[in-house]
Design brief:
The protein is built from 11 helices and 9 strands. The protein is α+β, with helices and mostly antiparallel strands. The relative contact order is 0.10. The protein binds 3,4-dihydroxyphenylalanine (DAH). The site of 3,4-dihydroxyphenylalanine has 12 residues, from β8 and β9.
Length: about 350
């Protein structure tokens, strides 16, 4: 006579082989694997087994359970159903997807605005130029026509690395990206064997440093984008046309600009650039100051070895944070540097 457990196993497998629907499979599961099923009943039968036979019976019971369970798992997979004990991922294709885009990394808003600005100017023919953030006073001041004793050079308004009262060439964290104008002009003149041979058309985005008290609109570090265009017979008309074109490309076709006369040591004439645009649907149209600009001062050209009789140029410098804050209605510059993901994810 065959062992009752062998009988149970043979039975179970034979019945399983006849199952041909999910409902039938479930009924089979209840009958054999369920809490009141036959395997459970057989387990209960162990108390009637003679003590000496218990280990063998137990081992046999485990083997049968395992085999029957595996047969069920295989059948469940074949019937497209899910079995709890099957290892590996169980995919419910009807479940709504998780939004993984939420956790995708991307550039900081300042980086993205900088790249957009560079892109707009690139379309107008401007290349990108870079210069060091640790500068010297020759490039930050002297060659930009900001002479010794000029108030802009006050130690309290600049991050000097060397003592300007002692060093002959004090180093400093640059306070403006206009330094890159000087660097580019010097490089082009050097490359031309002592004179400028081709026009210059560059923008240079980057960090600048000033020991300003931090508040909603000031930070000791911020970003500027500088522009420099030098050619034969460049006039204020090209400057204004370039700025208008930029404003419309970046802020939309309704954008208007206005130039207000002002003073910068490195440009003559100099102007403050204002932009008029409805930045967001819920905001009124208003004038917003974007930065400074002007015709490159002949002394600035000459200081870098460019003949001001043969060449002329325009320059401009905007604050990138201000542009970003205007465009995205950000009320406080500190939000841009706090690295709070709850804020950054909104942009
Ligand atoms: N460097 C100026 C600043 O930091 C901005 C500026 C004004 C740049 C006029 C220019 C310019 O190139 O022509 O305030």
């Amino acid at each position: 006579m065959s062992h009752p457990l062998d009988q149970l196993q043979a039975d179970a497998l034979a019945k399983l082989a006849q199952v041909n629907s999910a409902a039938g499979l479930e009924a089979w599961r209840v009958a054999y694997l369920g809490t009141k099923g036959q395997l459970k009943a057989a387990m209960g039968g162990i108390k009637d087994v003679a003590p000496a036979d218990k280990p063998a019976f137990g081992a046999r019971l485990n083997a049968v359970s395992k085999l029957v369970q595996e047969a069920y798992d295989a059948a469940a997979l074949a019937h497209g159903g899910a079995s709890k004990s099957v290892a590996g991922p169980q995919v419910d294709v009807t479940e709504p997807g998780r939004v993984y885009a939420e956790s995708l990394g991307r550039g900081h808003i300042i980086t993205r605005v900088r790249d957009e600005l560079v892109e707009v100017f690139a379309r107008m023919g401007f290349a990108v130029a870079q210069g060091p953030e640790l500068e010297d006073d020759t490039h930050n001041f002297i060659k930009l026509n900001i002479p010794p004793h000029h108030p802009a050079r006050e130690p309290s308004d600049n991050f000097y690395v060397d003592d300007p009262a002692k060093a002959t060439q004090p180093r400093m964290m640059r306070s403006q990206t206009s330094t890159v104008q000087v660097r580019v002009m010097e490089q082009r003149v050097a490359a031309g064997g002592g004179q400028l041979r081709e026009p210059i058309k560059v923008v240079s985005p980057g960090r600048v440093y000033r020991p300003d008290a931090v508040d909603a609109t000031h930070s000791f570090m911020f970003h500027q984008i500088e522009g420099l265009c030098i050619d034969r017979h460049v006039t204020m008309v090209e400057l204004k046309a370039t700025l208008l074109h930029f404003a419309r490309a970046y802020f939309g076709p309704e954008a208007e600009i206005r130039l207000r006369p002002t003073f910068f040591p490195f440009t003559e004439p100099s102007a403050e650039l204002d932009l008029k645009v409805r930045l967001r649907p819920e905001q009124p149209v208003r004038w917003m100051e974007l930065g400074g600009c002007g015709m490159v001062h002949p002394r600035v050209l000459a200081a870098s070895g460019i003949d001001p009789e043969a060449w002329s140029g325009f320059a401009f410098g905007f604050g990138i944070e201000r542009l970003a804050m205007g465009k995205y209605a950000i009320p406080d510059i500190r939000m841009l540097f706090a690295n709070d993901l709850r804020f950054l994810r909104q942009l």
